[in-house]
Design goal:
With 286 residues, the protein is an alpha/beta fold. It has helices spanning 2-7, 26-30, 39-50, 63-73, 108-120, 140-149, 159-163, 176-190, 213-223, 241-246, 258-263, 276-284; strands at residues 21-24, 54-58, 83-86, 91-94, 99-103, 124-128, 132-135, 152-155, 169-173, 195-200, 203-207, 231-235, 249-252, 266-267. Strand 4 (91-94) and strand 5 (99-103) form a beta hairpin. Helix 3 packs parallel to helix 12 (276-284). The longest helix is centred in the middle third of the chain and has 15 residues, at 176-190. 47% of the residues are buried.
Length: 286
């Protein structure tokens, strides 16, 4: 693995990389294992924003679960810090105008079908809006998600009818081995009618075809008239896969999944717990 990592770092004889936008996954990428961001990382990203490089938090989390980290970086007031990508690329918000500028909801029938398949395997399900997790019943996985995101938790009795309102994605959680079986089952019965990705071994997220973090970044780059080849994206897990494929300057974390490292143009020499994002930007961008 060490040889692979070395081969996927930028050549030190090259001139500095010149991204116009840096997209950052949160969990296991920008955030340390204790869910904090170091002062060094904050200062590094502020320096990048001061140079006019867009800094975009790009997470599976909802808006309200991303905003504490926006405040920690303290760049939202700058032009380069005004956008966030939420819910696995199904939503983009302009923080200056306080409005969603891009939204992709998943059809209710897809959500219901995923709910039925998950129920049959005894797995927990939930959908979210910006501030609330909605679920038909609570278990340890749903409680963990609520604690992790600090979102409100609401139990819905007629969950199937509720899903017809449409939401960005369905989140299924449970034992990783059972989640893997569900993913295989869903791919066989739903085919191209949805896309699926695991953000953690115990989470499977189901959403509309053609949606993902990478697709959202391409839309945002076009919206801002940026060069797609100059998008830099950092990620570690399967819900970062489309970022690795679509960003011209994709960077997988050292702690990232092997398949993500293989797809990325570069691999950080440091993990999320070692300020891998900031060290890469400091060495090869600033």
């Amino acid at each position: 693995m060490e040889e692979t990592l070395l081969h996927k770092l930028p050549d030190i004889s090259e001139k500095k990389l010149s991204p116009e936008l840096i997209a950052l996954d949160l969990d296991d990428t920008l955030l340390k294992n204790d869910l904090t961001i170091s002062d060094y990382t904050v200062q590094t990203l502020q320096r990048a924003a001061d140079r006019g490089i867009y800094i975009v938090l790009c997470s599976g989390r909802t808006d309200n679960a991303i905003l504490p980290y926006v405040r920690r970086l303290d760049i939202a007031g700058k032009p380069a810090g005004r956008y966030i990508v939420a819910q696995n690329g199904t939503s983009i918000t302009d923080l200056h105008e306080r409005r969603e500028i891009y939204a992709k909801l998943t059809d209710g029938d897809i959500l219901v079908e995923g709910y039925h398949e998950a129920q049959a395997m005894g797995l927990a399900v939930e959908v979210c809006d910006a501030s609330t997790i909605y679920t038909p019943c609570v278990n340890s996985y749903v409680e963990r998600d609520a604690a992790l995101t600090n979102l409100r938790l609401e139990i819905i009795s007629d969950f199937e009818s509720f899903l017809q309102k449409k939401f960005p994605k369905l989140i299924v959680s449970g034992d990783p081995a059972v989640i893997e079986r569900l993913e295989q089952r869903m791919r066989s019965v739903m085919g191209s009618r949805c896309v699926m990705a695991r953000s953690k071994p115990f989470y499977l997220e189901i959403q509309s075809p053609g949606t993902g973090k990478g697709e959202a970044l391409i839309w945002l780059a076009d919206y801002l008239h940026l060069d797609r080849k100059r998008i830099m994206a950092f990620g570690d897990s399967m819900n970062d896969e489309t970022m690795m494929r679509n960003a011209g300057l994709s960077v997988a974390m050292k702690n990232g999944l092997a398949v993500i490292q293989e797809q990325a143009r570069y691999v950080s020499a440091y993990t999320n717990d070692e300020d891998g994002v900031a060290r890469f930007i400091d060495a090869y961008v600033l």
